[in-house]
Amino acid sequence: MTPSEENLQRLAEDLKDDSVAVGQLGEQYPDLEGYLHEVVKEAAENGRGDYAFVVLDEMPAVPTDMRNIAQELLNMTDVDTVVLRTPVYGTIVSNEHSRAEIEAAEIVIFQDNDYVASFRWLTETLGQDPVSWGWVNAAIFAAVVAVAVFAALSFRPVKREELT
After folding, report:
1. Which domains does the chain have, with CATH numbers?
2. In this structure, what DSSP letter does residue 159 have?
3. How many Cβ atoms are within 10 Å of 67's Cβ, its own excluded?
4. How would you classify residue 98: left for phi > 0, otherwise alpha for psi between -120 and 50, otherwise beta?
5. Chunked in runs of 10, what are the mean pLDDT values of the chain (164 residues)?
6. Alpha helices (H) along the chain
7. Hey, which of 30, 46, 68, 70 would disulfide with 93, CB 3.0 to 4.6 Å?
8. Residue partners of 54: CB distance under 8 A and separation at least 6
């Protein structure tokens, strides 16, 4: 279903109940909503933010409408981040995470057909501090220099008399 204005209000109300709306997919997979709700609950309990997960039954006629729908749902609810999926693709909008973080995550999450696992991955990794490669490289460089200095200081010249 691509929500009309009226259906958008119903979706927002559904999200206020348990932060998950799975549409007709819930009929095929009755446990899906419960599993997704567990991920939402774990994220909130572990201080990773308030998420909502929405599945539309069909792709909107205009693909950019996905982002508009997700943004409207974000504005109509108390969550920090809305993940919206369709059978074809999806989008993520957030008040908490940068667009760069979201776009990097979208590359991963929407290639995975396991909605629960990909959503769990998202809630566990979105917003995490990346590895500071500058400090890692500096530490490796310092270790290499220390080994080189130690090797140079350990080397003692051999006298001719010691060779015979």
Report:
1. 5-125 (3.10.310.50)
2. P
3. 16
4. beta
5. 71 90 90 95 93 92 90 94 93 92 90 93 80 77 90 72 59
6. 5-18, 25-28, 32-45, 65-76, 99-109, 115-125, 133-154, 160-163
7. 70
8. 11, 15, 20, 21, 22, 69, 70, 73, 82, 83, 84, 85
**Distance of alpha carbon 78 from alpha carbon 158, whole angstroms:** 76
Query: In whole angstroms, what separates CA 122 from the centre of its chain?
Result: 3
Q: Would you say 118 and 108 are in contact if contact means Cβ atoms under 8 Å apart?
A: yes
Residues in the chain: 164
For 62, list phi and psi in degrees, rounded to 5: -110, 110
- Coil, strand, or helix at residue 72? helix
Phi/psi of residue 92, nearest 5 degrees: -130, 135
**pTM for this predicted structure:** 0.74
Q: Read off the tokens for 44.
A: 């909130």
Candidates 89, 155, 160; CA nearest to 118 is 89
Q: In the block, which residue shows the tokens 């981040």?
A: 81
> For residue 54, what are the β-bridge partners?
21, 84
Amino acid at 30: P
